[in-house]
Amino acid sequence: MLRVTQAIKLCGLMELEFIDEFAMHRGSLVHKAIALDCAGKLDESTVDPEHVAPRLESFRAWRRQSGAKVLETERHVVNEAMGYEGTLDAIILLNGAQYVVDHKG
């Protein structure tokens, strides 16, 4: 099954060569922190102050300013007919409509 990021790359919509192991690990930590924060389960003492905290605070500020309500985070999706799978970072409600948000860590 093709991952969503692989499909995007195959379509020529992004290049993954610029992403290194550190950036991928940091992105995973940011995603986890945001998901835990949205669920009200984040232990602030576990947040990396240099690499994760600024990105988490940026997401929090966006939520406050936009009024977005997070409905769900990290939802695994599979489309067998189209042959892809992936994880939706967040599903939000904003101004009466639902959107999928993609976090960048």
Report what the structure shows.
With 105 residues, this protein is α+β, with helices and mostly antiparallel strands. The protein is built from three helices and four strands, in the order βαααβββ. 37% of the residues lie in helices and 28% in strands. Strands 1, 2, 3 and 4 form a four-stranded mixed β-sheet that branches. The two termini are 25 Å apart. The model has no long low-confidence stretch (mean pLDDT 90).
Looking at this protein, list some descriptive labels:
105 residues; alpha+beta; four-stranded mixed β-sheet; 3 helices; 28% strand
The total of beta strands comes to 4
User: C-alpha Rg, in Å?
Assistant: 15 Å
Largest sheet: 4 strands, mixed
Strand content: 25-35%
Q: Unreliable segments (pLDDT under 50, ≥5 consecutive)?
A: none
Tell me the number of helical segments per DSSP (H or I, 4 or more residues long): 3
* Rough outline: globular
Counting helices, strands and paired strands, the structural category is alpha+beta
Q: Give the overall pLDDT as a whole number.
A: 90
Tell me the helix content. 25-40%
Could you spell the SSE succession in H and E letters? EHHHEEE
Cα distance spanning the termini? 25 Å
